[in-house]
Queue: 2 jobs
Job 1
Amino acid sequence: MINKRGFASDNNAGVHPEIMKAIERANCGHVVAYGNDIYTERAVEKFREKFGDDIDVYFVFIGTAANVLSIDAVTKPYNSVITAYTAHLHEDECGAPERFTGCKVLTLSTGDGKLRISDVEKEMYAIGFEHHSQPRVISITQSTEVGTVYQIEEIRELSKFAHINNMLLHLDGARLSNAAVSLNRPFREFTRDAGVDIVSFGGTKNGMMYGEAVIFFDRKHSEDFKYLRKQGMQLASKMRYISAQFERYLTDDLCLELAMHSNKMAKILEKEIRNIPGIEITQSVESNMVFAIIPKEITDALQREYFFYVRNEMKNEVRWMCAWDTTEDDIMGFVKVLKNLMNKRNT
């Protein structure tokens, strides 16, 4: 049987006990549906403490919806969205951005998951020419899908470029808390203050049961979002159960505490892996994931003990994810199995 506490995804982890308690506390009596409740009011206030009073916050069920609907709010069907080829918008949304926004998603190759102006400039042509889609949004992920983290100045440069060219900067923050821990900076400093226009703020991968937030830093971009959320089937009738989670998640920096732990576990895993000859770590470990190339012939046996995903079958590059509940014992058990398999292979 596959060890359920594997390294496949931080989505596989359960709900943090404090978040579960928050859901239980909200499960009392009647409140007005669709977000007109005290739990949602308090959760939105928590976001305003982090990002500023003059923001709009909308809760949705999942990250795909947060990304797609936020882009839908600021684009027209003839627009395009520029993103990295590793981005969820391209690889993991099953074509949802194209279907629901009508926009063209333009992807750029990047070795470390991060976009740079020199990359984006390649798509800045035929502006105003009716035969080409018109770039409207640059979408970045923080931390990226390969575990790297944008530095504040890198985000600032992208946002300045976007605004000069009449575009907006969207940030997919499914693992935003992990990035905050890595940077050791407040959320606002590397989002709003760095020129980001819209953030998809995630919690599911870091101890919440479900729920994501879409944050608009300029309310002119969110004027019609309530209608888009409803049409997108993301208006929760019993929204208090999402809101109560976010209220606790953002209280006493629980979100950072959990992310700090998963980041720390990834660094321990990296350290142990580097001591095993024949394993090549391929990305800088800056958040809660480790990417490595391992011999193909040991992959199946290793997955039977600790499940994980092969991200690049050509190179047999794998991804090992740490979560808020990953333990050092988990890591040492995994490393022991990996070492044994490598020893057998080499003898």
Job 2
Amino acid sequence: MNEIPERSIPRIRLATLPTPLEAAPNLSHELGINLLIKRDDLTGLAMGGNKVRQLEFLIGDALEKKATKILATAAAQSNFCRMIAAAARRVGLGIGLLLRGTPDHPVQGNLLIDQLLGADIRFIDNYDPYDPAHQDTLRAWALEETARGEEPYVVNLHGGSLMGALMTTGYVAATRELEAQFHDRDITPQHLYLAVGSGSTLAGLVVGSHVGSTALSDVRLVGVTVGSPSDQIVPRIREFVQSTSGLLDVPGPANHQFYIDESQRGTHYGAPTDEGLDAIHLMARTEALMLNPVYTGKAFAALIADVKNNNIRSGETVVFMNTGGDPLLFSNADVLAQSTSRHATPV
């Protein structure tokens, strides 16, 4: 298995790897395909998820720069904030989170874990993740920390940034793991599905498929966007691809061969959809595997729809990347409980 090409990029091991690539026999029979699930919900560290792989490189950079406290921002129920708080604590750093929301946000799900981790939490009543006000507020916070003698590391993950490239590198490395697992199983998947939020995970797979690995070169990579429409998310993914190729000093892919499915977005980021809730119930009742209504439920709903629409043909091999986010089940418990009435009869 090849190593990722790197120029002495600091890395701190945080994830439990490799994560399993598991067969899903009941769902395979139900859908008429050969379905495999990449269990990146099992990366460990505060309930796991895809961000752990990515944070190995980001936290490595923070330590290299002698940081003493990480400052980051995202939604009040952010998986990323939970993960970066856990990563910071694991390596002995302080953690400050600027969360989109208000102080009366229910303390459950990811926010509960943030508090258990002892994060220094502040709220900003501004729900646009791309508003410059968030980074401006973080920079002002950083000045406060500096005045107190801290060395703050302010996280800014836009596609053209070094930090964005570091996060993306986590899934360039993951392609080697997939390559070994495909080889061990003697399979060549036709499709791979995953949820897309910022786009860095998909971008890492795109770069990895063109750097010393053929495991994904012929796979139809489908990113199911859960927030931004395709005309916004595609340029961001390309930014991640370009900056990561530059960081690793490798030629960028000649063409960015991936597909964005925006059919499951819902009315806004975080809004559950009926299709996503149905997918959660189906996965739970056939494979006893939990998905969530913000990310993975929507991604699996897109896969189901493509089976029905014959974009995935009978008998084809499909990998579903479970990127985790289990605490979101509990912050959406009311919606999930209401949806059970449609699923009174087991599948």
